[in-house]
Amino acid sequence: MGANENARFLDCDTMNIQTMTLLRKFRMPPAPPFYTLRPVGGKFQGANRADFRDSVTLHVIQEPSYFNWVDVKPENPDRFRYVRYLSAPGVSYNNMAEVQFYSDGTRLQGEVTGTDGSHGDYPNDTKHAVFDGDPLTFFSALSPDSAWAGLELDKAYRISAIRYIFRNDDNGIRQGDMYELLYNSNGEWISSGKQTADSTLLLYENVPSNTLYRLRNHTRGREERPFTYENGIQVWW
Fold first, then answer.
1. Fewer CB atoms near the end CB (10 Å): N or C, the chain?
2. In this structure, are residues 198 and 95 in contact, taking their beta carbons and an 8 Å threshold?
3. pLDDT tens series, the chain, 237 aa
4. What is the pTM for the complete model shown?
5. Domain over 13-29+172-236 is classified CATH 2.30.30
6. Assign residue 123 a region: left if phi > 0, alpha if psi is -120 to 50, beta otherwise?
7. Where are the domains of the chain?
8. By CB neighbour count within 10 A (0-12 exposed, 13-18 middle, 19+ buried), where does 100 fall?
């Protein structure tokens, strides 16, 4: 195989502009880590007893983790004083990184409850990691299954939305962070502008096509990787 057999020649096209929807600033691992399957079967539940004996399942995770934030809209009209994420059955060790519960647009706060301890007795890997605001920390439970992390709320609420992210590399779009999209033209990197993410994706309009791009996070993190944009998808190089 020749050294240039897979080479592609790109010529930045400023006449044909495009709208780009961006989800990450660095490629996914070439082989998905073992833990990406761990959320499948995990449950979000509400209850009005602290021991969750009257628990109602609001959502069951059906897909592996793709290192991104996920939004869920439960349809249950009931109100709950206690909410939680319950580990998937089998060897999952919980591994949830962040969970946010909402009621009619308001993010709910409460006292953290759940299974005590952590695998290896690491103080940053307990149930509190699920609500610490840091997507890079996650609950590594002592038990391979049945471990849970939840909140005791000040009163019963209807859960209208759940947002969560499983164990991940923090290279997805983080709401509130400042990003800048760069494109390559004649060997120079040119800015398409900076914007603060107001969701888990970024929308850039009027961007030249047929070239290389880089997405930079000016708030945190150093990992970034060039990509092309093909059929509405980031293709990493």
1. N
2. no
3. 344 456 678 999 999 999 999 999 999 887 778 999 999 999 999 999 999 999 999 999 999 998 989 999 999 999 999 999 999 999 999 999 999 999 999 999 999 999 999 998 999 999 999 999 999 999 999 999 999 999 999 999 999 999 999 999 989 998 899 999 999 999 999 999 999 999 889 999 999 999 999 999 999 988 999 999 999 999 999
4. 0.82
5. no
6. alpha
7. 13-29+172-236, 34-166
8. middle
Six-digit token pair at 201? 């994706």
CA 92 to chain centre: 18
> Whole-angstrom Cα distance, residue 5 to residue 2?
5
Contact 79, 141 (CB under 8 A): no
Reported as half-sphere exposure (CB side, CA atoms, 13 A), residue 32 has a value of 10
Q: DSSP secondary-structure letter at 28?
A: P
Say which residue the tokens 């082989």 belong to. 31
Mention every residue, 6+ apart, whose C-beta is less than 8 A from residue 50.
Answer: 82, 113, 152
In total, the chain counts a number of residues equal to 237
Per the CB < 8 A criterion, the answer to whether 188 and 199 are in contact is: no
Q: Is 83 helix (H, G, I), strand (E, B) or coil?
A: strand
